[in-house]
Amino acid sequence: MGIEVGGHQERTDWPKLGPSLLIASALILAIRTARWPATHDAHLSNKELEKEIDYAISVASSVLSKLVSKNDTIFPKRREPWYQATDEDIPR
After folding, report:
1. Contact of 11 with 78, CB cutoff 8 Å
2. pTM: predicted TM-score of the whole model, two decimal places
């Protein structure tokens, strides 16, 4: 009664891409900071590290967005129902 499922659409499952974004960001950050000297003074390098973290997240997000827009078949999908109105829903 009311609304019926008219079918399903396959869409990229964005919540499942969270771990991929995390791993990609961590790898970018590790590569970019690999040559930094090991220091224990958190006050000096904290601002630089935060900038690098923001940059790594930005790069990983851009790459992931581009991949999803160009070739979304390589990512996990979920089926989302779409609904259609029945005769009872149409005003007369």
Report:
1. yes
2. 0.63
Question: Any idea what the Cα angle at residue 28 is, between residues 25 and 32, rounded to 5°?
Answer: 140
What is the rounded CA–CA span in Å between residue 73 and residue 80? 16
- Asked if residue 76 lies in contact with residue 14, where contact means CB atoms within 8 angstroms, the answer is no
The answer to whether the beta carbons of residues 1 and 84 sit under 8 Å apart is no
Tell me the pLDDT tens digit for each residue of 30-75: 999 888 877 666 555 578 889 999 999 999 999 988 988 888 788 8
* Type of residue at 30: A
Cα angle value 14/19/25 (rounded, 5°): 110
Does residue 92 have a pLDDT over 80? Answer: no
Determine the Cα–Cα distance for residues 78 and 51; give it in Å rounded to an integer.
35
3-state secondary structure 62-91: HHHHHHHHHCHHHCCEEEEEEEEECHHHCC
